[in-house]
Design goal:
The chain is α/β, with parallel strands linked by helices and 250 residues long. 56% of the residues lie in helices and 15% in strands. A hairpin with a 3-residue loop joins strand 1 and strand 2.
């Protein structure tokens, strides 16, 4: 009788062990099936994180590349400005009068180095014609980054050496926004400020006048400081100024 009872309890124990083994097997199989899913989830999270980092890098790089650190204002009759980034590449070309708009549209200087772009402007048919007709070329380098601005100014000075009727100079950036608000390039805005001390003139008139006309008009009212003495004589001399409150003549 005791043996029968003992055998019966052993059967019950065997069933418990079988249940435990079965449960362990089921959990193990479930874990195997869930592992690929967890692995996929981890890969997805990694890929999304990497994409987000790359997006931030691209957005930051775009902002860095397309932020001007210097502006080259070139005025003769076409008035244009070249925006230059920290990598010395031209990222914008803007015309500030009708001739300037036409010239800007005809140029293919975007993303060129500033020295190549300056050469293209000076050698363009319109500007070359103006220089041949003794028109006056003014080049103002608006320096947002002092070191870069000085390098650009030195290059501009060297490439205008052979043009007696050209001058270049460096300026700080404070007055640029004011010039643009009047629809003028900085070079013509500088002359506009000087002329406005002597006569009633509006920015629209200044925009369509050549630099030679503006310069000649200014000399009718000014006798104090020779223009070349302050700006440079067209042979590489230059200086830094804003032009406000100064009086110039030939």
């Amino acid at each position: 009788m005791e043996h029968k009872i003992k055998d019966a309890f052993q059967g019950i124990k065997a069933e418990d062990e079988l249940k435990a083994q079965t449960k362990a097997f089921v959990y193990e199989e479930m874990a195997k099936k869930s592992r690929p899913r967890r692995f996929f989830q981890r890969k997805l999270v990694y890929a999304l994180s990497l994409s987000f980092i790359l997006l931030l890098a691209v957005a930051g790089g775009h902002h860095l590349y397309f932020t001007p650190t210097a502006i080259i204002s070139m005025d003769i009759n076409p008035s244009i400005e070249l925006d230059v980034n920290r990598f010395n590449k031209v990222i914008g070309v803007t015309g500030y009068n009708d001739d300037g708009v036409d010239l800007a549209q005809s140029l293919d200087v975007l993303y060129l180095n500033y020295d190549q772009a300056i050469d293209e402007v000076i050698q363009s048919e319109k500007v070359a014609e103006c220089l041949a007709n003794n028109e006056f070329l003014s080049i103002a380098v608006v320096q947002m980054d002092e070191e870069q601005g000085e390098a650009i100014l030195q290059y501009v000075s060297s490439c205008t050496t052979n043009h007696a009727n050209a001058h270049c100079y460096g300026v700080n950036a404070e007055d640029v926004a004011e010039a643009h608000s009047h629809g003028l390039s900085y070079g013509k805005y500088n002359v506009y400020l000087q002329l406005s001390e002597y006569l009633d003139i509006n920015p629209e008139d200044v925009a369509e006048m050549t630099m030679r006309e503006l310069r000649d008009l200014l000399t009718q009212y000014t006798t104090e400081i020779p223009l070349e003495q302050h700006y440079g004589n067209g042979h590489g001399q230059h200086g830094n100024h804003t032009g406000q409150g100064k009086k110039y003549t030939q």
